[in-house]
Amino acid sequence: MSRILLAFRTFFAILFGRTLPPEASSLSPRPRVPPSPAPTPAAPPPPSPAYALQLLAILQRDARLLDFLMEDIASYEDDQIGAAVRSLHDQARDALTRYLSLQPVIDGVEGAYTRSAAGDPAAVKFIGNVPAGKPEGGVLRHKGWRAAKVDLPALNPKQDASIIAPAEIEIE
Amino acid sequence: MEPRYVIGIDLGTTNSALSYVEYQPDADPFALPKVEQLGIPQLVNPAEVREEGLLPSFLYVPGTTDFPAGSTALPWDAQPDVVVGRLAQKRGAENAGRLVSSAKSWLSHGGVDRTAPILPFRAPEGVPRFSPVEASRRYLEHLRRAWDSGMPDAPFIDQQVLVTVPASFDAVARELTLKAAEQAGYGNITLLEEPQAAFYAWIERHPDWRERVHVGDLILVVDIGGGTTDFTLIAVTQKGGELALDRVAVGEHLLLGGDNIDLALARIVADQLTQKGSKIDTLQLQALWNNCRTAKEKLLEPGSKKDEEPVTILGKGTGVVGGTIKARLQRADLEKLLLDGFLPAVSSHDMPARQRRTGLQELGLPYAADAAMTRHMARFLRQQASSAEQGGVRRGPSGLACPTHVLFNGGVLNARLIRERLLGVLNSWLGEEGLPPVQPLSGEDLMRAVSRGAAYYGLARRGRGVRIHGGVPRTYYVGIETAMPSVPGLPAPLKALTVVPFGMEEGTDLRIPNREFGLVVGEPAEFRFFTSAVRKNDQAGHLIEDYGDDLQELAPMEVNLPAQQDAADIVPVSFETVVTETGMLQLWCVARDGRRWKLEFNVRERVEG
Q1: Cα(B152)–Cα(B164) distance, rounded to whole angstroms?
Q2: What span, in angstroms and rounded, lies between the C-alpha atoms of B224 and A125?
């Protein structure tokens, strides 16, 4: 459509209050939209306690972890505690490695000099005489832990997640 | 459709496994076929399905209070009525009344009706029960579903399937296994004896096996699993210039295995605890049983120098530390139990103690009365002496069958102490016969060899690889009452007619000559049926008297001839024996005009009798 024709059509459309031809609206200056306030990031939903409790339930089921942590062991001999812990320790490690595949953050030798690669303070923490800038490296004191894979069973939404371990009743 | 895979299934007493190998028609015949193990998805905890290499052969019948709703779902079944596998085993330890275990042993137990719902054996009133056949069906079905979910492109039903059975399984147990497989939706299946499968697995791992064994060699396969012990002899012979393998003897079915050892250890430790004043209950004994198994394995690990291994029973309530009972499994106790109790150094003339027959016996599994595995081994090798020359059995001067090689199978034999003891005892016997010691054939995964070997054998049946010739591992007889004036209070003496000679080959049939029976039309006729693993030289049609303890009675065989209007009341028939290509034994009644009726096992009658 020629621009002259468009000018006329637009002129009459404005005069008689009709809608502008679409071609005209692309030429007309953009209407000013009042700036909307920058969207505030939605508060992250509170983390579902179900997943935290699930891991706890697994460690309790397979390794009696909750029983152990909640028991007052002050009065027992080291010997007695040692006997229980030896067995709990095996079971807890089995359970953990079954559901998480654990790796060090830095696969090095503790006590040896290591170049620091990562700049993420959550992954690598510098301690001691830390210089002003990012340090080149230092002595690896702790290799760190990383869950390379998490393989937890799906949660049953119908199940009450707050039950960490069921009560047991024996019929004799 | 041509099967793409050969599937080997080890339906074990305590664990089952599935191996498979792809069939490649144009593969290099000397290349090693690649046998793989299928991961079996199963419930390991409520609402948690995980793949494991083995499927524990346990079935749990859940009640309403056992598991949260929906938490027993499997990828292929949202609401199964039973739980099979690891979770069944775990939960069953807490509630034994709903647990079916050792279904395979029940399947081979002639003293009960194996098609009747009798398991769980000690289930309280109101718990649904399953027959040993049905329980086996459930395990086989689980394996089929696991395959179909893991290999959607190659439906199970189209593949060639081998299911292994103990060599000592009699014809009834084999047929019931086959029936369970059919009910589980298996199409194309063949039964294979476990020790043979274990040997195939060894061949599969050793492509140079022809250089390792020679003509005249005799291989003893010792298979000690969780619940059973089995002995088999395989002879290396020559056929048409090629090395051939003949399975020449199988032992009796012994309900004796690793579980017996672990339970005995738990009892020893429990006794020590009682002396110190801590009593333990049934559930704790169960935990102790498991912990003793772990402790035993640790003490028997190669290189372990420890004198003792702690065995702890954790406290039952929330007081886990306070309630912990400490005990120790001493190496001295373990070695004494193994070397004196289960594997005593006996002479080759030392026979196992016979089961004491009391008038009233508690019904249950017929566990071996003598726990000494070495005595059972002595009897097995001695039995071969009493039978006359059977092709290829190497013997010493005293007649004892003298193996040149030993192949071990079953988890118990992972322990070097046990293997060495068995070898030591065997070598002392060979020394007495003036023969050199045996050579162990090693290098196998003892837990999975059977299913691997079964898959390999499937290939062998299709032309790739060597095949062990076996034939029927026993002689079978039909009982015939002698015509004599009856004596009050004494049953008429019974003679035994040989209907299946030892070693009758797969895919053959034979007619029993010179003997006809008059069968009454329209009512079931029953034959008493006997078997022997010892008498190997009775030919078809031989009539045996005074057989003593050599023969064991099986479930009777039954035939029902439909009445026909024009037929006479009594039809003269003779027996015909068929051993199918898949190793199944069939007995037929054949009339003079060629009509045939198959004899079926009557599993029910036996129990009442």
Answers
A1: 24
A2: 55
